[in-house]
Amino acid sequence: MSGLLLFVFTIVVVVFIVQIGAIAFELTGMTWQQARFQALSCFTGTGYTTRESELVSRNPQRRKIASGIMILGHAGDLSLIATFVNYLRTVFGEGKSVHYIPFTDISVPLLIWQFGKLLLIIIIIYIIHKYFFRSMLWKKFTVGIKRKLEKGKLVANTTFEEVNLGDSNYGVLRMVIKADDKYVNKTIGESRFKELTGAQILTIERKNKMIPNPSPDMILKKDDVLYCFGKQKMK
User: Fold this and answer.
1) Which residues of the chain have pLDDT under 50?
2) Domain boundaries, the chain
3) Does domain 160-231 match CATH 1.10.3720.10?
4) What is the pTM for the complete model shown?
5) Which of 16, 38, 214, 232 is the most buried (most CB within 10 A)?
């Protein structure tokens, strides 16, 4: 039983690390989907594409986050393998073919016993994924970590993020309007956005609604997401 608890605990710790990494990536300006994918890719060392990895490699802050997740990922992989093997290990060398269930006289064929232990792991992982990681407690944990990272200024918010990467100097960029941003509560015309940044606002995402081709009279609000076309290195 202790081996099972240790393995489950290791899984939870691994998921916590990936979640914290995803939150850190998101605070640098990535969308949540990109942040979660990059954190998981860094931890497992798989899933990279040239296009997606450039979002990390071109940003010094993201590179530091990725490096930390990768280091923890190696330790996490070893811990998962070790605890998994420890849980499923059997003493075949002693010639045992059956296993006696603790505190009973009931014997079970060794292979069936091992299969049952593996099935138990699958069921526990499913329950954790289905209920714990979708619970209010998990959501509060995510929000709390995000606030601590922001208050501690461990990760600085990046204003612009390159969405379309190419060989040219131009592309589509994503900008998040912050509470202390100079553009907040001003119309697009009043803010002189295009004049100051050299980018044209194509679409505004506000509360999960898309506003294409916004007029100069449109007021920019906190948490608005602007999709613009311009130079990848803004003014």
Assistant:
1) 91-94, 165-167
2) 2-151, 160-231
3) no
4) 0.59
5) 38
